[in-house]
Design brief:
It is a single chain. This protein has 134 residues and is an all-alpha fold. The chain has one domain. The chain is 85% helix and 0% strand. Helix 1 runs antiparallel to helix 2, helix 1 crosses helix 3 and helix 2 crosses helix 3. The termini are far apart.
Length: 134
């Protein structure tokens, strides 16, 4: 494999890795915001961007110069990602609500109660986890 091909392959893997992290962090953040588990004043994607840069630094053993470059790249794209997430939030919320409503239709009354409790416990865990990151 030529060095150009190898470099291109590495670049594709790194971009896919970064995209995966961004989607995961943004999705989690969106879900917390949409469900009232995260206050909009704490919704800055700055924390998520910093967390992603730190994770990449650790996972990829980035040099200080690389870390700075990665942070700059993330910062350049952050506003567009935030705007994109804001545009899709209503559709995601609608799909999550529809999914939960369909699930509830196949449950017994006892299971519906358990399902509601499960959703509340999951929400509480997310709130607890989120409050430790603020």
């Amino acid at each position: 494999m030529s060095s150009n091909t190898r470099a291109a392959a590495v670049a594709v893997v790194v971009v896919a890795f970064i995209a995966g992290i961004l989607v995961g962090v943004a999705g989690d953040h969106f879900y917390l915001l949409r469900n009232g588990r995260l206050s909009p004043r704490h919704s800055s994607s700055r924390f998520a961007a910093d967390r992603m840069a730190e994770r990449l630094t650790k996972e990829l053993d980035l040099s200080p110069q690389q870390k700075t470059q990665v942070q700059q790249i993330i910062e350049r794209h952050r506003a567009k990602i935030d705007a994109t997430m804001a545009n899709v939030r209503p559709q995601v919320r609608q799909e999550l609500d529809a999914t939960n409503a369909e699930i509830e239709k196949v449950l017994t009354p006892e299971q519906k109660t358990k399902f509601a409790n499960l959703r509340m416990r999951i929400g509480a865990r997310r709130r607890d986890r989120n409050s430790t990151h603020q």
